Each structure stands twice: as C-alpha cells, then as structure tokens.
C-alpha cells in the first residue's frame, strides 16, 4: 500500500507492480503528485485558497475503531497538510476586470486516470502513447499548436558529442532500445517584430488558464542523471516528452549574461577574451578527470571551492561563471571536492541531448509522477484519489504493521506500507527537525534576457543578495514547454529558506523584474520584464531525515520525503530504489517491460476447451525459449540480451 502519490512513492509503486506485487495507491487529495504536482492557473488559485484556509478534517466514520483488536494498536495519521506555509499571491494588473471571465475549454493533454485497474489504463496507454517508432509523429499529432513550426531531428549520443541547438529543433536520442522524446515548439516569426509586445492583462491569463501548467516544485532533469536513466531503463519515457534547456545564464554586476558551456559556445563567445577562453577550457578539462590529479586539489581539501578557484589563475568573471552557473554551488559552504564533483557532473551531461545538461518535461514536472503511476496501473496497480487513511494498525506482539483503516471504515491488509512524511502525526515526528524551501512563481511578459528567439528555457543562479543569504535558482519557461500561454513566461524561483518565502525572494525579484503598474515607472524600467502575477510560499523539505528519527514506526512502514531544494531529482530516485531494495532485495528495480511481440501465453490460458475451439489441434508455446514472468500469467521470449 502506498499512501500519497509523490514522485518517490510513484516510482516505488511502479517498481513493485512491475515485479509482480499487488499495489494499492491511495491519496487523500483529488490530484496526483502532492507537492510534486502541476496546476492550471485556476487550479493553482484553488490550491492557494485551500492552503490559506486550512481546517482540521473531521472523521467521516467514527466506527473504524471497532475494527481494532485487543492485541493491536493504532498510529493515527495526520489529516491536515502542514507542508505549505506563508502563501501570498499578488496580481499586478486589473483584477476586477477578470471577475466575469471564465476559463476557456481544456487543451488536449495526457489524461489523468482515476481508480482503475490495468486493463483500462493499458487501453489508454495504447491510444495516447504511440510506440517508440512513431515518436516523431507524436509531436505533430498531439496538438495543432505544438506541431506548428516543429521539425524534429535525431541526434546520436556520443561520449564527447556536442549537439548544436541553434535552430532550436527537437532532439531525440536512442539509447539501446529506449527512446527519450524531446518535443520542442519554435515560435513563428512575427511580422511586426519591431513593434512593442502586446500588453497581457489579468483577464487574458484567467481566460487562457488551461494553457498554464504551474509546478509546485521547480526542477530540471540532468541528461545523465538518475531519473533520466530510470525513465529510459523502465521505458516510462514513452509516456512523456521533453524539451532542452537552451541557455545557462549568470547575473553579474547588475546584468544578465549568457554563460558559454560547451566547447563550441566557449570559442564562439564574444564575452570572453582569447586568454579567458584558454583559461576556461584548461580548467574544465581538468575538472573532467580531476581524480587523476589529486596533487592539484588535495592541499585545498579543507578550503571552499571559491577559495580553490581563486588559486587557479582564473579571472573574476570566469570564477563567477564556474561557481554560480556551472557548478551552481554555495560560495561559502561548498568544499573544494564538492565543487569539483558538481562541475564534473555538469560537464558530463553536456552534449547528450543538446548544448546544455538539462531537460524539462513538457506540461511540467507534475507529469513525471503520473508517468510512473501509469506504469504501475498497466501492471495491475489500483489507484484511489480522494481516499484518506485514518491510521496504521500495528500488531503489539510482532511490532509490524498489519493494515490501514480508510475514511470509509474499511480495513485493508498489506505486507508493506509506504507513507509520505506529511501524513505522519506530530506524535511520530517529535524528534524531527525540518528544513524549509522558499518558492516563488511569476508570470511575466518577456524574458530576463531577450534574444532573437522567444522560445528559450533558461536557468539562472543569482548570488546571495546579502551575507548569510542563500543563492537563488531561477528557471524561466517559455510557452513551447506547454506551461504558459503565448506571449508570457513562467518564472520559478527557489532557495533554502531563512525567513518567509517573500522575504527571501522578493529582493531578487525586484532586481530582475518590474513590479510596478504605473506607466511612468514602466518607462523608467523599460528593460525589465513586467510581472503580471506572483505567488510566494514556503514548502517543507523533509529529505535527508533518517527513518530512526520517527518515533514508534514499525519496520515494514517506509517513509518517503517531499521535494528537496536541489535542482535535480536524484534524491527521490535514490530513496525510491533504497526502499524497494529493502522490501525486495532479490528483485530488479524497475526492469524494462517485455516487448508485446515477445509475450507468449501460458499453455493453460490457451487450452482448447477454454478457447471454444475444442476440435482444433492443441497449440503449445515454444518451451525452449520461454521464461515465466514475475506475475505468473505470461512468459517472455528472450533473444540474446533482449527481454
């Protein structure tokens, strides 16, 4: 039983179902993903209102305690979500003009499936998710707007390959027999490009609200990260599409600049002198195999990475680029070894799918948990939204959890229980100390760095505004990511919390964006993007907490954390794999699904008397090459190393 549908829980559920286990996945919310979810604009407004008006939920059924036996005890679960705090939203336009405006009809999008078994979702998968061979046709057929100007191309992965993305065409890369689709939409050239951009109003945002897919947590996928590897290995990548992050930006001396990353970018850069280009390439080459040269960094093992960079004969601008835009680490807290590891990871991810190390899932980060939920449902998992759990039932003698009791008063037995941290009550979390993440989401009318192309996905790290403050990671998304309406940008700001989200992030917002609506002020700050709407909130970061910190949890109850403040998703994938291996140490974690063409039905299933063709000769499967699957109902024919 999995309680909650965040990313780690969804991965575990998919892995369990794939290995032949029976999975029940319940969530008290009416949407998938929890704090990993994505919302339309109206959906986000409802989520804000819900969290601003939090109330305790009364038990719908008081008779559930009668189900508890004398030799059992209960661990009550929390019915109030305390992971989101200090929500403040602001409209920088005429909000009254949108009072009577209704949201336009829904855009075509991958469906969110409800409490159904494998059969219905399998049919849904066949209809909505074409085979890998037709991946490139999917970009044209999914949605008319997406097909406009889209010319997918293929790029073959190489160790040192650098894939140019100047034309911003899509890249799809085949790795073994798995394909990761990269969908991308190019902006049609405007006939009046010299004219001022059309002013976007709040009523337009409300009317086009379904074009927004706003993530609660802002992350990118490293092209050689654990999540990409898992998507390819498990073939879950067929359920999603991705777009390259096109630019790495830096904020220095009050200006936003583009950072050269690949070899081609470095030598084509006009920002760097020839001497700086040689310095940068020499240092980046060293970082790729720094382990082979321990004598060059061991003396600085106890120093910060910033101090180490100052000894490498790098100019201040190069030190800034490496520290904040390539390694993307703290200036004061990151050690030399951690900085070298982060730089190497960045460089190793270059060139796999584009000129930057990052991918972004179309329709938002919230698609990823749903993709793993779909895999689970295809292999028999059952899903129930709006289904809260009252308590865990624990056997006093063995100390193991035997069952859960839901809000209908039903007792559901299971061998293992996966619970998200937010569901645990205060009595269980007395010794737990949580960190917080400060988040902001802005809707703006232009990019922080305008170029000839409007369709840019950018990542920018802003150094600390004041001493003791954390750096702020900014991800700016264009309309071709299917996360915002045309003519707007969706900007995510994230940093570890020191105060409320607004206090942490508003100084950065004021530096980069125009928050004023008065005409004369707009003219004074003409170069800055105008903020149309904004929301600030703090989110709990429960990553890195040891299970032993929770009081009185049975050994077969596993706790998953919510989103962390890191840019990637490695923490969630590691946690999911660790929990799965603890439950099933002999099973493979998320193995590739069998090829439908290689599935041979068992002899009992195709017996003549069951099929109604008793007069026909009996047909037997090829026993010499078949192997029983983990579910016991099919056999998979192997050829060589293919499953």
Automatic annotation (TrEMBL):
Keywords of this entry: Cytoplasm, GTPase activation
Biased composition (Basic and acidic residues): 121-130, 139-148
Compositional bias of kind Polar residues: 190-199
GO biological process, one term: small GTPase-mediated signal transduction
GO terms, molecular function: GDP-dissociation inhibitor activity; GTPase activator activity; transferase activity
Domain RAE1/2, residue spans: 437-565
Origin: domain of life: Eukaryota
Subcellular location field: Cytoplasm, Cytosol
An example Gene Ontology CC term for this record: cytosol
PANTHER family registered for this protein in UniProt: CHM, RAB ESCORT PROTEIN 1, RAB GDP-DISSOCIATION INHIBITOR
The protein's name: Rab proteins geranylgeranyltransferase component A 2
Annotated organism of origin: Charadrius vociferus (Killdeer)
């Amino acid at each position: 039983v999995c309680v909650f549908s965040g990313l780690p829980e969804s991965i575990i559920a998919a892995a369990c179902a794939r290995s032949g286990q029976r999975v029940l996945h319940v969530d008290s919310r009416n949407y998938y993903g929890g704090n990993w979810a994505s919302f339309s604009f109206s959906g986000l407004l409802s989520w804000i209102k819900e969290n601003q008006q939090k109330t305790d939920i009364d038990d719908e059924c008081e008779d559930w305690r009668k189900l508890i036996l004398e030799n059992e005890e209960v661990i009550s679960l929390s019915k109030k979500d305390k992971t989101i705090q200090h929500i403040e939203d602001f409209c920088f336009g005429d909000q009254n003009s949108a009072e009577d405006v209704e949201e336009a009809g829904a855009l075509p999008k991958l469906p969110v499936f409800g409490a159904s078994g494998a059969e219905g979702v399998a049919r849904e998968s066949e209809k909505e998710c074409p085979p890998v061979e037709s991946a490139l046709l999917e970009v044209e057929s999914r949605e008319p707007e997406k097909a406009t100007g889209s010319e997918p191309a293929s790029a073959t992965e190489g160790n040192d390959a650098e894939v140019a993305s100047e034309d911003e065409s899509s890249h799809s890369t085949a790795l073994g027999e798995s394909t990761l689709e990269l969908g991308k939409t190019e902006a049609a050239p405007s006939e009046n490009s010299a004219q001022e951009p059309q002013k976007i109003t709040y009523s337009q945002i409300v009317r086009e609200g379904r074009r927004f897919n706003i993530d609660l947590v802002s992350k990118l996928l490293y092209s050689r990260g654990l999540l990409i590897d898992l998507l390819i290995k498990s073939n879950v990548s067929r359920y999603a599409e991705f777009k390259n992050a096109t630019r790495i930006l830096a904020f220095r001396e009050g200006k936003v600049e583009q950072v050269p990353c690949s070899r081609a970018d470095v030598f084509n850069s006009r920002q760097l002198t020839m001497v700086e280009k040689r310095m940068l390439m020499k240092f980046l080459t060293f970082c790729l195999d720094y382990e082979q040269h321990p004598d060059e960094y061991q003396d600085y093992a106890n120093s910060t990475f910033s101090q180490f960079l100052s000894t490498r004969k790098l100019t201040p601008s190069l030190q800034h680029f490496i520290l904040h835009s390539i390694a993307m680490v703290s200036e004061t807290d990151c050690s030399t070894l951690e900085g070298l590891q982060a730089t190497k990871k960045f460089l190793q991810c270059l060139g796999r799918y584009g000129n930057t190390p990052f991918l972004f899932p179309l329709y938002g980060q919230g698609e990823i948990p749903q993709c793993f939920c779909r895999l689970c449902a295809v292999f028999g998992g059952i899903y129930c939204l709006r289904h809260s759990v009252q308590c865990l039932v624990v056997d006093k003698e063995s100390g193991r959890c035997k069952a859960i009791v839901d809000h209908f008063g039903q007792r559901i037995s299971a061998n293992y229980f996966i619970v998200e941290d937010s569901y645990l009550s205060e009595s269980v979390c007395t010794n737990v100390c949580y960190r917080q993440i400060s988040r902001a989401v802005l809707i703006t009318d232009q990019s922080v760095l305008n170029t000839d192309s409007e369709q840019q996905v950018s990542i920018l790290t802003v150094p600390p505004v004041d001493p003791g403050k954390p750096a702020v990671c900014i991800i700016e998304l264009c309309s071709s990511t299917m996360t915002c309406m045309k003519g707007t940008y969706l900007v995510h700001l994230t940093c570890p919390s020191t105060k409320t989200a607004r206090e942490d992030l508003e100084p950065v917002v004021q530096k980069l964006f125009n928050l004023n609506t008065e005409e004369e002020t707009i003219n004074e700050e003409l170069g800055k993007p105008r903020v149309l709407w904004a929301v600030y909130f703090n989110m709990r970061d429960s990553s890195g907490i040891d299970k032993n910190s929770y009081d009185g949890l049975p050994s077969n109850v596993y706790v998953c954390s919510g989103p962390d403040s890191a840019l990637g998703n490695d923490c969630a994938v590691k946690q999911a794999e660790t929990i799965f291996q603890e439950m099933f140490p002999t099973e493979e974690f998320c193995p590739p699904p069998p090829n439908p063409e290689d599935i041979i039905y068992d002899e009992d299933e195709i017996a003549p008397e069951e099929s109604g063709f008793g007069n026909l000769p009996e047909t037997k499967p090829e026993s010499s090459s078949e192997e029983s699957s983990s579910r016991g109902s099919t056999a998979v024919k192997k050829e060589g190393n293919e499953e």
